[in-house]
Design a protein that fits this description.
Number of helices: 2
Helix content: under 10%
Strand order of the largest sheet: 4-5-3-2-7
Largest sheet: 5 strands, mixed
Oligomer: single chain
Structural class: mainly beta
């Protein structure tokens, strides 16, 4: 299904899952190595263009409840940035300014080469970033490894991505 078309014309939204109903998100990931993140963020916690690389990233685009305005939350694996830190990436394209939020879900080299299970309360993470809004439908999920800005080499592998109603036994430290 073409979700961009679904969002733009409003049809078939009932086919999309709502964060209020499926608030928990779990997955497993494995990275070959981490990327030097000394230049990833500035003093304000904003991501620098030249440092916008992550060994692994899972992004979720969520419509603000009652609107067509997408919000993005992504979870990243870094080398030294502290877990639970919220990173902000601002990008300008012509007259528009886009703001993306990344939450450090895993940090360090200790578990490189191992499958690491993660469990997040997506609803709580959304409210942490957008406290005056309610999350709506999920319109996109993507996975990636990104190393073009730092000219690094990395491989991220992802498995078992699930949105659930039931709270996982072990949830991230943010709860």
């Amino acid at each position: 299904r073409n979700f961009a078309q679904t969002v733009s014309n409003g049809s078939n939204r009932s086919d999309l899952i709502d964060v209020s109903d499926f608030r928990y998100f779990t997955w497993k990931w494995n990275v070959s190595n981490t990327i030097d993140d000394r230049n990833t963020v500035d003093a304000d916690g904003k991501i620098r263009q030249e440092g916008d690389d992550f060994a692994a990233k899972i992004g979720i685009s969520i419509l603000k409840k009652g609107s067509n305005d997408p919000r993005e939350i992504s979870y990243v694996w870094t080398r030294k940035l502290p877990e639970e830190k919220v990173l902000i990436h601002e990008k300008r394209i012509l007259f528009w300014r886009f703001r993306y939020h990344r939450i450090v879900a895993e940090s360090g080299d200790k578990r490189v080469g191992q499958w690491v299970a993660e469990a997040r309360d997506l609803y709580a993470d959304y409210k942490r970033i957008y406290p005056n809004e309610e999350p709506g439908k999920i319109v996109r999920v993507y996975v990636m490894s990104d190393s073009d800005n730092t000219a690094s080499k990395v491989t991220g592998t992802f498995a078992d991505l699930k949105f659930t109603r039931k709270r996982p036994l072990k949830l991230s430290p943010s709860e």
